[in-house]
What we know:
The strands form five sheets. The chain has a three-stranded parallel beta sheet with strand order 3-4-5, with no helix packed on it. A three-stranded parallel beta sheet has the order 6-7-8. Strands 11-12-13 form a three-stranded antiparallel beta sheet, with no helix packed on it. It is α/β, with parallel strands linked by helices. It has helices at residues 41-56, 71-74, 113-125, 142-154, 166-175, 191-196, 208-218, 223-238, 263-274, 279-285, 288-293, and strands at residues 8-10, 17-19, 30-31, 61-64, 83-85, 131-134, 159-162, 179-181, 203-204, 242-243, 310-313, 327-332, 335-336. It has one domain: Metal-dependent hydrolases (TIM Barrel). The protein is globular. It holds the Pfam family Amidohydro_1. It comes from Fusarium oxysporum NRRL 32931. Residues 47-334 form the Amidohydrolase-related domain. InterPro entries: Amidohydro-rel (IPR006680), Metal-dep_hydrolase_composite (IPR011059), Metal_Hydrolase (IPR032466), Metallo-dep_Hydrolase (IPR051781). This is Amidohydrolase-related domain-containing protein.
Amino acid sequence: MALAHCLQWSSPATSSRMPIPLEQMSWTAAAVICSRASSTPTAMSHLVLILDTMLKYGITTALDMGTFPYSTLAACKMSGKTDVRGTGAAGTVDGTALSMAPGFSPESFIDSPEAARKFVDARVAEGADYIKLFLDPLGPDLESLIAAVEAAHQKGKLVISHATSQPLWTTAEEAGVDIPCHTPLDKPIDAAFIDQYRDTLSHVVPTLIMMQSIVNNTGAPAQAYTAAAEGSVTNLHKAGVTILAGSDANTAPFVPANPPFGDSLHDELELLVRAGLSPADALRGATSLAASSFGFHDRGLIKMGYRADLVLLGADPTTNIQNSRSIKKVWAAGVQSNLS
Length: 340
């Protein structure tokens, strides 16, 4: 999610409030907001509740990674609420877990280069802010993925991948994906992998809280998280790859874990610090770097002409990342939120 914060904390020595000399911020999380159309009162109330929850946790821009139909996101455009940007349905092939989601349209199956180009055209036509590709051992094949990436780039859209194993990461890099989402659970992204794809591997959204939750929920060996997922982030960060904060928060019944909206973003920051990032690095990955990496150049910093997205904290998160939770006030596009 992308948000901007005016961060301050109470100084024990002076009992005064002192500004943190840190860039303004933006949380980034991949979030399935709702997998239903937004035309019913039930669906609308569900969306409003999610938006209010995210704002309560200081999230003023949410980067959605798979809500379908895209018209659902249009219903989220509400003054004073979290600003939601998204991809619409992700491209996949028949037989994957995503393809079996209730209401998922076969129009998003990219089982050939021609189908991939049509998929991208359809997402762009409905207003998607970027393109998401769901990589699975079943597919899509490399040729179709390359066609999708090329079509998206021709339309000026970034391409985000869902890839949870090292072979799928390899496929994503070979296809030219801009930002891989998730980290592997089989083996870590190591120095050799990073060196091989150094020209293209520049930004990653690891979603460590999602990967940890999957391991916990499925009974997978602990090293699937500590060695593979967390280890990948440690290696990527040491190599200078930009690490962005994302939680993959969702309420979907067809995924293996459901990190909660809002709170899980702060969990993610803590896990990134545990993986080797400094608190300031983790915060930038949730703010200024998140905004710039996704091409949103009107937010993520406190700067003249930028959105007035501000979060007031009661303690310094650069000394203890858990202080990111000490939220006192939130403004979204200049509108102060009611946090009660």
